[in-house]
Specification:
106 residues; alpha/beta; globular
């Protein structure tokens, strides 16, 4: 359903090790908003919720709620570091368009 690059896995592992509270993995959610209609939301997560899909990548659990699952099938998540910005990048084949920052899509 979702793939994580080595850089994305490393970034999540770093976040998990630095977390103030224990977490098992992270959650990816699709929410209304952003300049293109939908936006990505991510955060550390300690447990699964009813209806979640759980994907494991190199020891990392990715939790995806039922409402977001149809939007993320086949998506690849990467982590990039640049001079002006660093962060997660989403290559989502389900997006028909996206904003210039890459954080929202339609």
């Amino acid at each position: 359903m979702i793939t994580l690059t080595e850089k994305a896995v490393a970034a999540v592992k770093t976040a998990l090790s630095a977390a103030s509270e224990p977490a098992e993995g992270f959650r990816i959610m699709i929410e209304p908003g952003g300049c293109s209609g939908f936006k990505y939301s991510m955060g550390l997560e300690s447990f699964s919720r009813e209806g979640d899909a759980i994907i494991e990548a190199d020891g990392i659990k990715v939790f995806i709620d039922a409402g977001s699952q149809s939007h993320v099938g086949g998506m690849a998540v990467d982590f990039v570091t640049g001079l002006e910005t660093s962060g997660f990048v989403f290559d989502n084949p389900n997006a028909s368009g996206k904003c210039s920052c890459g954080k929202s899509f339609s």
